[in-house]
Amino acid sequence: MGKPKAPKAPDPAQTAAAQTGTNIGTAIANQTLGNVNQVTPDGALTYNQTGTKQWTDPTSGKIYDLPTYTATQTLSAGQQAIKNQSDKAELNLATLAAGQSAKLNDLLGRPVDTFKAPAAGDPSKIGLPLYTGYGAGPTLQTSLPNAGNIQSSIAGAGNIQRDVANAGPIKTSIGNTGNITNSYDYSADTTKYENALMERMNPQLAQSRQALETQLANQGLQPGSEAYNRAIDAATRQENDARLGAILNAGQEQSRLAGLARDQASFQNSAQQQNFNQALAAAGFTNQAQAQQYGQNANKMQQANAAQAQQFGQNASQLEANNAAQAQSFQQGLASAGFSNDARQQMFQNRNSTTAANNALADQRFNAQQAQLSAQNNARSQYLNELYAARNQPINEISSLLSGAQVNQPNFVPTQGVSIPNVDYAGLVQQDYANRVNAYNTKQAGIGSILGGVAGLASLSDERAKKDIKQVGGLYEYRYKGEGKDAPKRIGVMAQEVEKVRPDVVIKGDDGFRRVDYGLLFSAAGKRKVA
């Protein structure tokens, strides 16, 4: 029985050349269908074939003539008139800006001269006020000098009171009334205020930037174009101005906090002054009450002595006169002590008033120095702002001249896409070949019995053509590749294993797969070659 021949494999070069021709034809057809002319109120878009370009297939050497097209965009009469006027206006403005920019060479070539700016205030020259503290109060007289002995030889007259009862200690100090605030913190970190303003402002700036980019894209302006860059530069300057405004606002907030700190220090010193005055008044009131009690005690003693003198006056007139002289001396000493104490108290109060006035004058000088420092800084800042404004004005004018309106570009509608799909010619050829190989393998597998059959019949036994392989004793259970999972399993040998011990029964086909002649393999008659 003759051996059937396996299907011949397709020629790759012929298949590739056919596939290339199919692809090129489809591409030309799709290009022709996609070139749809459009007409809008703002203009028109037309496609015209302006020639061909030759292309050589490197595989087959075949030359193809590929058509080339030119897309032409034409503005409407109104839009073309606007464009002509805009081009003319932009040329005039650019010419004017070029002339103005020549003046910038001299302006920008000179550095900003701040020599004539008012000098800034020097905080180190502000001297902190030196307050004078209240001294200790005067030492008041608490006892009277001895006015002499009273004669007391009259029987039954009793003892004359010689000492005034103690009226209580005199208060000589007013105690601590609180610390005086000598300085305040007028520095503040402006970063948190700048960050707060930036966090509130950046989303709006980002939204405005995105809206501008969308608007420019809708107008047909591409990044990198002159008009697009002018619009972006203008938006960037506005954003920088907004950020500079946030920084200035943060500086104003710092000045406001410094003013609050200064006012708080002044309020604390005023409260301390009031507390001191109240303590001083309380001490004076206490001493006055003590002096009054002392006077009352002295008067009581005088009354007692007068009663004793009156009781024995008729029997001891001379004694009464002596005692009266002694009482007069005592009264004079008491009056002298009171006058001395009042004079000392008045002098103490005068010294305290002088100290308070000096401290108030020191505060006034300190505030005046601060006001002068602030005025110097404001004058310098105003001078620099005017100097920078004068320097930037020509640049801003040139930037304004270089910005202009744009012509509306035609908005073309999307056309309905119609395309011809490519034919997978190479896939069809390969599939046809695979189908013929499967038919051939099926035919080969169905000839003869599984383990013998007709002598001289070679069955496909190459391990590479099998799947679902499972060893059963000395044989294998399997299915051929290409068979479904429901196909019945076959039983046989592996050609690669048989070739090692019986190479005479193994045949290598034209398709590269090995086959085994089961008749020779299991025949007891010996070896026989199969053609």
Task: Give a structural overview.
The protein is elongated and about 185 Å long. Helix 2 (77-109) crosses helix 5 (317-402), helix 3 runs antiparallel to helix 4 and helix 4 runs antiparallel to helix 5 (317-402). Strand 1 (38-40) and strand 2 (43-56) form a beta hairpin. Mean pLDDT is 80; it is low at 447-456 and 524-531. A three-stranded antiparallel β-sheet has the order 1-2-3. A three-stranded antiparallel β-sheet has the order 4-9-8. Strands 5-6-7 form a three-stranded antiparallel β-sheet, with no helix packed on it. Helix content is 54%, strand content 11%. By secondary structure, the protein is mainly α.
Overall mean pLDDT? 80
Structural class: mainly alpha
Distance between the termini: 10 Å
Number of strands: 9
How is the main sheet built?
A: 3 strands, antiparallel
Question: What are the low-pLDDT stretches, counting only 5+ consecutive residues below 50?
Answer: 447-456, 524-531
Q: Report strand order across the widest sheet.
A: 1-2-3
Number of helices: 8
Helical fraction equals: 40-55%
The H/E string reads HEEEHHHHHEEEEHEEH
Q: Return Rg in Å.
A: 61 Å
Proportion of beta-strand residues: 5-15%
Overall 3D shape: elongated
